[in-house]
């Protein structure tokens, strides 16, 4: 045996013992590189996109909020200055209505300041409160009083808010052509029902005995 061969074998064993062979695994270094890339490159890119999205979203949202706060509203001319408008809409910032304009168009007659929703109804043949009805709750029943004795003919009726012509509020006149005949008339002998109670002369306990013939 040659000495040089022996020492060569020993040297090979020492190297093998101190430096064991590490098996190569495909992709190990690649995955590490990929991981590093993901952390440094892709991760940074993702963060940047998130930052951009956040900034853009925040900026746009703020602008829209500002626009929403200054949106225009519809206003209507209040020509009679009763607080209610009418006609075509005019648009202006909600907190800055044009002079003479209001935010409603509920007036049914913008030329009369006694006509608007909630106004007191008057006896004027006008729908003062804009509810579609004229002179409601102001219409009364009147009776024609041709003989002017204060009592009207129950068959001659007038329904208006104010009396028109010779009319009265009290009915009950049984002869509207005779002033002495009415519910307050004095029953006397004469063949008439002067007090309109349906009884004539002696049949009526209220007969004025002094009117009887001697």
List the keywords:
single chain, 214 residues, alpha+beta, 13% strand, rod-shaped
Précis, in short:
By secondary structure, the chain is α+β, with helices and mostly antiparallel strands. The protein has helices spanning 3-18, 28-69; strands spanning 72-77, 86-93, 101-102, 140-144, 157-160, 167-168.
Q: What is the N-to-C order of secondary-structure elements (H for helix, E for strand)?
A: HHEEEEEE
Biggest sheet strand line-up: 2-1-3
What's the end-to-end separation, in Å? 195 Å
> What characteristic shape results from the CA principal axes?
rod-shaped
**Roughly what is the average pLDDT, rounded to an integer?**
77
Radius of gyration (Å): 54 Å
If helices are DSSP runs of H or I spanning 4 or more residues, what is the number of helices?
2
Helicity, in percent? 25-40%
Task: Flag low-confidence runs.
Answer: 9-19, 24-68
Secondary-structure content class: alpha+beta
How many distinct beta strands?
6
How would a textbook summarize the main sheet? Answer: 3 strands, antiparallel
Notes on the structure:
- There is one protein chain.
- This protein starts with a helix and ends in a 46-residue tail after the last strand.
- The protein contains two helices and six strands.
- It is 27% helix and 13% strand.
- The relative contact order is 0.06.
- It is an alpha+beta fold and 214 residues long.
SSE diagram, text form:
Blueprint: H1 3-18, H2 28-69, E1 72-77, E2 86-93, E3 101-102, E4 140-144, E5 157-160, E6 167-168
Antiparallel strand pairs: 1-2, 1-3, 4-5, 4-6
């Amino acid at each position: 045996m040659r000495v040089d061969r022996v020492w060569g074998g020993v040297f090979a064993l020492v190297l093998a013992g101190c430096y064991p062979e590490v098996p190569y695994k495909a992709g190990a270094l690649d995955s590490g590189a990929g991981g590093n890339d993901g952390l440094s490159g892709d991760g940074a890119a993702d963060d940047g996109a998130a930052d951009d999205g956040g900034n853009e979203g925040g900026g746009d949202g703020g602008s829209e909020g500002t626009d929403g706060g200054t949106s225009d509203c519809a206003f209507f001319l209040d020509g009679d200055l009763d607080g209610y408008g009418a006609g075509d809409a005019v648009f202006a910032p909600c907190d800055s209505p044009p002079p003479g304009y209001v935010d409603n168009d509920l007036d049914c007659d913008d030329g009369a300041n006694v006509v608007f929703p909630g106004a007191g109804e008057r006896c004027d043949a006008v729908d003062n409160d804009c509810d579609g009805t004229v002179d409601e709750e102001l219409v009364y029943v009147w009776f024609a009083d041709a003989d002017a004795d204060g009592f009207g003919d129950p068959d001659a009726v007038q329904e208006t808010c104010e009396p028109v012509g010779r009319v009265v509020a009290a009915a009950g006149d049984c002869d509207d052509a005779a002033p002495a005949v009415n519910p307050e008339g004095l029953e006397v002998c004469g063949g008439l029902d002067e007090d309109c109670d349906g009884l004539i002369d002696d049949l009526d306990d209220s007969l004025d005995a002094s009117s009887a013939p001697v």
